[in-house]
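User: Hi! I'm working on a homework problem where we have to compare a predicted structure to a textbook description. Could you give me the structure for the chain below?
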Amino acid sequence: MIACHLKLCVLFFCFSQMVLTKQAQLQQEWLRNPDDVWNRTLMCDVYKRSLRSIADCLFEKPEIAKDICLVDNLTCAIAIVVNSVVARITIPNSVVLVSSVTYNAVKLAVQYGCDNVAVLNGGVEIVAVDIPFPILNGNASSDEVNDRIVNSYENTLEEIKARGKTVAFAFLDHISSLPSMLLPVERIISVCRAQGVQEILVDGA
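Assistant: Happy to help. Predicted structure tokens:
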């Protein structure tokens, strides 16, 4: 799994047969060693080697291994980033933007982060962009469907702005889980940037 957070964050993950085979080998090595040897010595070495391999393979910069963190799964990665970003929100009347098709575990992570934020107005509001499904009839083109989705984001952002609030953080899905939809994430990002959204997280899984 790879997780990066800048001003624009993209998360994605997959498991290859090579990874699964290596995982099975490590499980056998773990079973052959006492817990103290595995946890205090072997696991630390494996973890450090993994970080260096990721830094070299993906970024060709072994020296940035210290800036990489391995987590259990995508939901865990998103929760870490969401809580980190939301915790920095200090502007009154702030909004965190999700959508009606956002994965429920992510919504709970956003809700948890917002519940723990204390700003001048007493908290952060969560607003979900309504993306109805099916969006249009079966004869609609993909462009028409994408236009409808983008319009939903534009209208929601305008409504938030009209209420005198600021979107401090937007969580966007590239491919939603339920229903399964490919969203025009590049266009949505452009709309968010044009409306002054401060930080964006893209779930690219």
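For your comparison, note the following. The mean pLDDT is 82. The two ends are 10 Å apart (CA to CA). Good luck with the assignment!
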